[in-house]
């Protein structure tokens, strides 16, 4: 009886408070831009923890007129961006959004965004309910510092 109670308690702790969304953001961030910027970009990883592929068919971002999934391509030494109509996140896999590659491009912000702000992204998925993810705005240098050892500035 005691063992069973302990197990029940353990399961209750392990379960998330809300049902898990099929699409998960992993260090997704919006790169802070000057207040006059009309276009911003988001990078990071989108992960699929389910056993089925997820197809992102569109993205919207709160406070922006438009958002699109882009891929930067280099051809003959020139870079350009393609708007992807859909992006597949394979089962139990992640896609990396990074400068020079895949990214979410955000057009025409309603107002300036600063580091510390949060943007809600709504991803439209094929055959599934849309997923809303809260994405922080960060300065590029601050973001990169997360990946490196701590810089000691005390002397
Ligand atoms: Cu772009």
Architecture overview:
The protein is mostly beta strands. The protein has helices spanning 2-14, 140-145, and strands spanning 23-31, 39-48, 54-61, 64-75, 78-84, 87-89, 93-97, 102-109, 118-125, 131-138. It has one domain (19-134): PCu(A)C copper chaperone (Immunoglobulin-like, Sandwich). β4 and β5 form a beta hairpin. The protein is globular, with a radius of gyration of 19 Å. Mean pLDDT is 87; it is low at 147-155. Copper (II) ion binds next to β8.
What shape does the CA trace take?
A: globular
For the record, the count of structural domains works out to 1
Continuous helix count: 2
Q: Please name the CATH architecture.
A: Sandwich
Percent in strands: over 45%
Q: Multimeric state of these chains?
A: single chain
Order of helices and strands: HEEEEEEEEEEH
At the third CATH level, what is the topology name?
Immunoglobulin-like
The description of the largest β-sheet is: 10 strands, mixed
Number of strands: 10
What small molecules accompany the polymer chains?
Answer: copper (II) ion
- State the fourth-level CATH superfamily: PCu(A)C copper chaperone
Distance between the ends: 59 Å
CATH classification class: Mainly Beta
* Low-pLDDT windows of residues: 147-155
- Which structural class should the secondary elements be placed in? mainly beta
Fraction in helix:
10-25%
Radius of gyration: 19 Å
> Which whole number gives the mean pLDDT?
87
């Amino acid at each position: 009886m005691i063992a069973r109670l302990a197990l029940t308690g353990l399961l209750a702790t392990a379960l998330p408070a809300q049902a898990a969304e099929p699409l998960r953001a992993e260090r997704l961030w919006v790169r802070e831009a000057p207040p006059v910027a009309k276009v911003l970009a988001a990078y990071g990883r989108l992960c699929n923890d389910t056993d089925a592929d997820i197809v992102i068919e569109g993205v919207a971002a709160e406070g922006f007129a438009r958002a699109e999934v882009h891929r930067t391509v280099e051809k003959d030494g020139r870079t350009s961006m393609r708007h992807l109509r859909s992006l597949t996140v394979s089962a139990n896999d992640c896609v990396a959004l990074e400068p020079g590659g895949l990214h979410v491009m955000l057009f025409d912000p309603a107002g300036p965004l600063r580091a510390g702000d949060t943007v809600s992204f709504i991803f439209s998925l094929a055959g599934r309910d849309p997923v809303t993810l809260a994405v922080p705005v960060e300065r590029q240098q601050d973001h990169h510092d997360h990946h490196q050892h701590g810089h000691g500035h005390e002397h």
